[in-house]
Input
Amino acid sequence: MIIKKVCLKNFRVHKDREFEFKPGINLLLGKNGTGKSSIFEALSVAFFSKSPRGTLNSIITNDGSKKAQIKVEFIASDGKEYVLEKSIGQSKSSLYSKDGSLKYEGKEDISEYIKTIVGINEEVFNKVIYTYQNQLTDIFSKTPAERKQLFDRLFETDVYREISDKLFKVQQSYEKDLEVNKVELEKIKLELESEEFADLEERIKSHEEKLEEVKNEIENLRAEVQNLRKRQKSLEDIIESYKRIKKDLQMLGKEKEHLNSKLDDLNKRLEDAKKAKDIVEKTKKGYEMYLELEKEVRRLNTNQKELQGKKREKETLQDKRNELEKSKSVLESQISSLKEKKVEIEKRIAEKAEKISDLKKEIFKLDEYLKNLLYDQSKLSAEIEEFNKRYEDLGKLKVELQHKHLKISEEEKLSFNRKLLEDEISRLMQQIEEVKKNISYEDQLVQDLANLRARLENIKNVSRELSSGMCPILKEECKNVKEKGGFEVYIVEKEKIEEEISELEESLKKLRNFKKEKEELEKILKEKEIELSNINLKLEEIEREKESIKSIENILKTQNYEDMEKIKKEYEGKYLSLVKQISATKERKNSIEKEHEKYLREIVEEDEKLKDINEKISLFNESFEKTSKELEQVEKSLVLYGDIEKDMESTMNSIEEKQKEMDKLRKDFDMYKKFEKEAQMLEDILEEIKDTKKKIEESQKSASILEKELEKIHNIEEIESEKDNLVVDIDKRNEKLSELSQQVGKLEETVKFLIKERERKKRLENEKRELESKRNFLEEKKKLTKEFREKLRDLGMKVSHRISDEISNLSTVNYNIMTGKVEMIEFSAENDYEVILKNFKESVERTFSMLSGGEQVSVAIAIRAALSKILSKSDFYILDEPTINLDVERKKLLAENIEKLFEDVKQVFIITHDEEFSHMAENIIRL
Output
């Protein structure tokens, strides 16, 4: 990935800045607090929505701004050019390619796509590629547990542990399931071995046989009961027949009496009917004449009603004619009134139109005058703006001049401090040279100490072999030992060497103290050099300020700054006068325009009134025409009705004459109506008398037949006695059947229960087989899960070891290039990623905490460069203050070899206040 440009607005110290970068080494030079690190903090915020230095809201500048903006232009690993924009305070993000082929919005989508096209995640960026100043060595100084957790996550080997932990939970769940299975299996086995299931089949067979015997007995009894019931039914039928015949004879006797009584009654009604028929025949003619008259009266009444309806219609038309004549008169009056109002309104509109024309002319004159005033104002404003700009620029120069005088007032103090620092640095360098001389003896002392230890070891070996005074090879007394004065000579020499070794070790301890002293002195020297460098920079700046002061004083003198205040007041007076004239003209114009608008509104209102009147006149004219036509139609309709009153009087006279004739025939009509129905019944009565006589004969025949049947049933008492005995026998057998049925019910319940128990036993046996099968399955699953966990854990360790070995080799090469020392860095996953620096020549191993500050920084840079190469596909790296804690020699060595260290990286950013790196940078940005 190549970062091309970063634009920042309201981000930390950057109000509105733009930074362009190039492939290769980009150097960002500047003092602390100038915002160098903030540029790369912005990359983390843009790419991953996270700041390594705190919350996102804390990065907005403290000048009242509500949002910060970041814009990053970069070339991704896919070769495409992208633009990433992010707003903090509004939570807006967008990523789009410059060719317009795609666009993403929303921080989640962008972060995911960034990982794809850049090849890194947020943790690799903030822990490996970029580390904030003074945090370069932090990840290597953590506790073992913290280191392991961090690097496992960076190497993505923590996934093996996480899966292994999840599988352990699965394994535990299988173990719990096996425990549950065991309990359930034991429970089923105990249940199957219980007495409930003992001799179950024999018990079922025995009960089923007993049930069959009882059922057969029931069938036999039911057959007996059925035969007895048949005999009982036969006897009951005979008894019922006897009773029915007796009852039928009684009914026939009563029916005969009823028919004789009815016959007498019919003979009486026959006489009455004959008399009624004579009366009807006599009054028939009068009855028919009455009906004809009644029909004629109804017709005349109908005609009378129709004539009354027409009379009412005529009266309605007469009322309507009167109303229409009144309406016509009112409409004529209203139309005349509206025409008078119309003339008045048209007169008022003409007067107001004339006033509007006068006002328009005056407005035009005021517009022209106002245009001239505004032109004068614009011209004066331009002059004032130009004057104010010059005045403001000179004012700024005057303030700047005061600041510059204030700055150069520190020159004497800074010069004095520089002299003190130069003396202090000279003294420190002398002390360091003296300490170096003492340290230079260390190599000789180490060699002498090694020789003495070798001699001591040799004497110890010889002492052991010759302690008896015998030669170990010849197996005889050793002459050399004897000639030298015996075995005691070796003891004396051993003690002497041990004493010399003790003295040398003490000297080496002192020399190591000199090393610590040297490191402390170098650290103080570095701080003093930085302080001196800062003072020199300030003094150089003061010299430049002196030159700047002369230039500013010349400008102020040339421009006559003091006289400009008077000119400014004159301009303000002119401008104020123009503003007042413009204001007065605008007020006059507004007043006239309001009056103009008022007359326009009034004309509109009068037009509306005129329109309303015209509409009303039109409507009234239409109504007048309509009313006239309607009145004409009513007059025509009234002619059609003629003299309807005379017709009504003639019809009424006819009705009265017919009513008189009907009154004369009323007696015959009433007598006919009274006896008409009774006369009509004569034939019916004769027919009914004939039918009744026939029924009396049939009743007598039926009674004779029934009496003969009754004589056949002579032993009724014996039959009833036999029936009663049969009822008793049936009841006894039913009681026996009830007892046997209860016994069957109990036996069936028992058999059902036993069959259910047999089914339950089968279910339990099936459950047992299923549980045993499930147990075998769970044990196999548990075994496979355990094996998979162990292999997964081993795989995670192998991956971690392989990556850490690769990093160890690569970081060792980096360290040797940076320092020129032949030492090895061990970065082992087996030791929780503890960093160990090994010197094979001196057989010395030192952990990261034992290294000096400079060594820690060098080792950290070497490992971080290796981590970046292995973990990132982005091909870029950021070093923030990499020379911290490095002595002058190491600093130069790092600067000389930084290109070699990152020769395979497309883009490197170095953030520093040190000029050492200037010579190799392709791009230098000074802040």
